[in-house]
Amino acid sequence: MSLLRKGILVSGGQVVSIALSMLAGILFSRTLGPDGMGQVDLFRSTANIVGVVFAMGLGPASIYLLNNRKVPLVAIVTNSVKMSVVLGAVLAAALAVTILRVPEYFGVVSAAVAIVFSVGVGAVLMTNLVRPVLVAQLDARRMVAVDLAAPTIILLAGTVLWLVGCLEPGIVLAVGALGCIAAAAMVVTFLRREVHLARPFDWGLLGQGLVYGLKLAAANVLYVLSYNVTVLLLRYLTPERFDDVGLYTRAVAICSLVTLVPSAVGPLLYAKWSGMTGQARTNQAEMALRLNVAYGATAMVGILLLGKYIIWILYGAAFIPAEAALVFLAPALFLIPIFGVCSNLLASDGRAALSAFILAGTVVVVSVVTWVGVPLWGIRGAALAVLCANTFTAAGVVAVCVWLYGMNPLRCVLLRRSDIAYILAALRPSAAAPK
Question: What predicted TM-score, i.e. pTM, was given to this entire model?
Answer without folding.
Answer: 0.82
